[in-house]
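Form 12-C: Joint structure prediction
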Amino acid sequence: MTEKCSIELALLLPDVPNERDTCVGRLIELLQAEGLEKIHLVHQNNSPHLCLHHDPQHFSVARVRELAQAAGAKIADRFRHESLRIDGMGCPICATVIEHTLQRMEGILEASVSYAAERLHLEYDSEKIERSAIVRRIAALGYVVLEEGRATGWFAEHREIIFSGTAGLLLLLGWLTELAGLPGNLSLGLLLGSYAAGGFYTLRDAWQGLKTRSFDIDILMIVAAAGAAALGAWAEGALLLFLFSLGHALEHMAMDRARAAIEALAELAPKTALVQRDGGEVEIRVEELLRGDRVIIKPGSRIPTDGRVLSGSSVVDQSPLTGESIPVDKQQNDPVFAGTVNGEGALVVEVTRLARESTLGRMVEMVAEAQMQKSPTQHFTDRFERLFVPVILAGTALLVALPLLIGYSFDESFYRAMAVLVAASPCALAIATPSAVLAGIARAARDGVLIKGGAHLENLGSLDAIAFDKTGTLTVGKPKVTEVVAVEGSEENLLKIAATVEARSAHPLAQAVVTEAKRRGLVWNEAREVETITGQGLRTRLDGKNIAVGNAKLFAGESLPETLLQHDTQLTSAGRTTMFIQADGHFLGVLAFADTPRDGVRAVLDHLHKIGIRQTIMLTGDNEHVGRAIGDAVGIDEVQASLTPEDKVRAIEVLAAHHGRVAMVGDGVNDAPAMARATVGIAMGGAGTDVALETADVALMADDLSKLPFAVALSRASKRIIRQNLWLSLGVVVLLIPITLAGLAGIGMAVAIHEGSTLIVVVNALRLLAYRREDM
Ligand code: ADP
Ligand code: MG
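Section 2 - Result
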């Protein structure tokens, strides 16, 4: 005899980002060692729970909870998860350097750094290593860990451009004094100042590069500038450093803008909330809100928490979260979300989620994580760089040595080699893809489209066909019972039996049955245990009888009575979904349902065609007639009906073979396998259901399809920009190498073009931030 008890995972391991984290496994292991029999993950009320099976003779429920809490605390205390902001990374190579250094440290379980997002995701064993040791190690490499929440000052944000500007100014003054024929020492002094200002950050980055023995263009710049100085060409050296530092500073400012676009999302939620406590009203910080607190929301104010409306009614502008342009009606029991804007009415809202787990907060977190993931193109450019850089370095060595042998002067061959090396440095290539991914994902998030990684962004931008689930995706998903046909017993009895079973199911048809039974004033006792046969129906035992409700597939192999079949044919040809009810082998009758197509689906499908999607397909578990009727109403290209969830997976494979890249759009609940099999799994209603948010590759936060064409078009634009960036950065390298080799362009020109192309690539990517729906 065993008993079960379930505990929310977030209560046991508050810092663990998701249920796939290794700490969940550690927790389960630890609890099994305590003698609990079986432990597994379940989803309850939309959040992951740990279900603990135990023998009541050995453990009381209270004891199990105590054990779980203690084990959770032990693991959370030992294995820490952190996401840190890193400042001072000059080139994408810095990210790799930090990653590799940290990964080699004892006690660090995971370290991944995104140059574009300037973030480090860290998991470490606090018994083996202290946080301060990690921060010190990063500092020793020459980077700074920014403590969260502390605003960086104006100077800190602009110091690079200030230094670079100073270098430029001093260079100009030095040049002018020389022109004016003033004493040479004055102009030399000014140029030296220019060297210091322009070379400060370059020297720092070069030093870090040297320490970690990684190839870095900064090293090259310092060598070139030192070489120029040694040859007495101070003005030329100062120009190099100035151009280089300017390029870098502008690139960083541009990337900061992309990052700020995401941080702005997080800023949407108010910092405080007005709550009813002990009969009065108090203003508290949102972090102190507890589940069940009643929050007062004044007209026109931003909603500070995820919750449920207790009283009042209003319309709420959810566009900050979901991108929906039309405000949504809110009545009692409707969900509201942190960061959205209340309209004219006052509301009292019960808190359902703590501040740190709000939909908005998690979306921001997921976006930050998404930007860290490398896309296929980035993997490709990374590989390319690894091959290309050593080749270039070897080539340069030859370039210095060979001309010397055939009688050229050292000055000349050295300068030429430096120019070629600058020309060949693939900095623009390295930043081409991540900058576009960063900007594309940030832009999508602002319109309520959550794209969970660069790979998904690229895939979404190269789709050929899109498959849709029917119920809840193309239709409203709130079917109504339209006919009740009893062939044995009364209509009431039929409906009552159906309700008894369906009260246990979350399927939209089940809700329709329950609603209809209630409307007719029927009362029933819920069945205790029901068996769900996905895509077919339900079975249970009730008062000693075997009850089955579902579609024809559930009764395959059984012969259905003639009268029942006649009713069924009549109902289905009228476009109804039907459900048979059977008790102990006797068919009692059939229920018919109708669902309505969603508004605007036709326009969405048209739009998708216009932007290049070749085929749209409905995949449904419902009957052919209903599929056709809805399909015609919304104007879909193809309907595949009577599919089980496995059939849907196979259908996706066949579609992929025919059309190429295929997306599956669904609710993320019973379509999860098909979504996983598709090139991209897209879920809608991300703001309402956590499952949709967690399982999909792309989540539309609003519960409608209107953002789908936007998402596809934006991703296509992102792909285009990535391609342009690759061509541009490769093209510049390919053109500039022979030009510098031939001595047609000097090192100054090479630096200007090199930095110029890097900047163009980043600015080109940032155009995505300004992407408008009209651009589609
Ligand atoms: P769709 O592809 O339209 O979203 P589903 O895969 O969710 O449909 O379900 C397919 C069919 O399975 C339904 O049309 C219905 O006939 C049957 N079915 C699913 N769940 C239930 C249930 N709880 N009770 C009765 N029939 C069900
Ligand atoms: Mg469905």
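Section 3 - Comments
The chain has a mean pLDDT of 88. The chain has five domains: 1-150, 157-262+372-437+718-770, 272-357, 445-472+599-712, 476-597.
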